[in-house]
Write a structure and sequence with these properties.
single chain; 309 residues; alpha+beta; Phosphorylase Kinase, domain 1; Aminoglycoside 3'-phosphotransferase, Chain: A, domain 2; 4-stranded antiparallel β-sheet; two-stranded antiparallel ribbon; 9 helices; 44% helix; binds adenosine-5'-diphosphate; binds magnesium ion; Phosphotransferase; Aminoglycoside_PTrfase; Kinase-like_dom_sf
């Protein structure tokens, strides 16, 4: 990968700047940049790149792959790598102004019309009894170890919800033919950098064409996760109201979306939330008091904290 991007041996970082994935800070053409993995195959990476350029052309702030003398993004072995400029700025610190600006950016992204044949499409999951069992035992194992006092209260809600996901949650959302948009499906504070008070989306690499309501639900639940400057909890109701109001300046939600919002939230809690709670144990994130407090809030959250109206 470094050879492809012509990074001299002495200029190659030994380590990722990120614990969870390879993200290499480098210099190229005199500029600070990062090289990281993006969604493959190359046609999908190219579609994400076109989407990012289209966003920027509409004044929606996001990174775009650097234009270099070599291919970028580039398929190298069985992975696709991309070089983005390093975005100088501040991390999120939880202020009302920052929350407003983030909701505004998400709304602008969802409102941008950029259809593309090669954009990855959201795929509905298909869980059998064994994978439900795996989620339930995963929650039991992780909560039993790190938050045993919550085991019963969390499991008594999550187990029946996980068991009925394929019959009572997924079909309602899937069969409603909800409005779709190209979304990052990872719109969280740690994927934004605030430059001159406007956030820039710096991690667009999970982009897909998906029901926009699911992307909004992901932000409602996970916006504060993994960012050191965030408070150690989900949005409060009033923070959510601020985020949502800014989002709605750009997106008019349909009646179907409004009716299905509680189901969409439950969908994301069961899919992304369960995964987040279990996967965090793989990285010892439950030992970090800041992350632990967030994870406990996530596991016990009353979804009525995030109303649409
Ligand atoms: N272009 C960039 N400018 C500034 N910081 C960046 C940039 N890309 C990544 N980072 C930093 O590295 C972290 C991990 O990068 P990210 O692209 O989010 O990786 P991943 O796709 O694995 O989540 C970010 O949270 C951010 O702190
Ligand atoms: Mg990221």
């Amino acid at each position: 990968m470094f050879e492809h991007f012509a990074i001299a041996k002495g200029d190659r970082p030994n380590e990722s700047c990120y614990l969870y994935a390879p993200v290499f800070p480098i210099r190229t053409g005199g500029m600070k940049a990062v090289i990281k993995r993006t969604t493959g195959p190359a046609t999908a990476a190219a579609a994400i790149s076109r989407w990012l350029h289209a966003l920027v052309a509409q004044d929606v702030q996001a990174v775009t792959p650097l234009s270099l003398s070599m291919e970028n993004p580039a398929e190298i072995g069985d992975r696709v790598w991309v070089a983005y400029p390093w975005v100088e700025g501040r991390p999120y610190e939880g202020s009302t102004a920052e929350i407003t600006a983030a909701g505004d950016l998400l709304g602008r992204i969802h409102a941008a019309q950029v259809p593309d044949e090669d954009m990855p499409r959201f795929r509905w999951p298909d869980h059998d009894a064994a994978s439900v069992e795996e989620d339930v035992t995963g929650l039991q194992r992780v909560l039993g170890k790190y938050a045993p006092e919550l085991l019963e209260v969390v499991l008594s809600r999550m187990s029946p919800w996980l068991a009925s996901f394929m019959t009572e949650t997924l079909p309602l959302v899937r069969d409603a033919d909800l409005p779709r948009a190209v979304v990052s499906m990872d719109f969280k504070a740690n994927n934004l950098v605030y430059a001159e008070d406007r956030p820039v989306l710096i991690d667009p690499d999970n982009a897909e064409y998906a029901p926009r309501l699911l992307d909004l639900a992901l932000s409602a639940l996970l916006f504060h996760y993994e960012s050191a400057g965030s408070p150690p909890r989900l949005f409060t109701s009033s923070e959510w109201a601020v985020f949502l109001a800014a989002y709605r300046r750009h997106v008019e939600l349909t009646d179907d979306e409004i009716a299905l919002w509680p189901t969409a939230l439950r969908y994301m809690l069961l899919e992304w939330g369960t995964w987040t709670i279990i996967d965090a144990a793989e990285w010892d994130d439950w030992d970090d008091p800041h992350k632990q407090a967030f994870l406990i809030d996530l596991a016990t959250v009353d979804l009525a904290r995030f109303p649409l109206e």
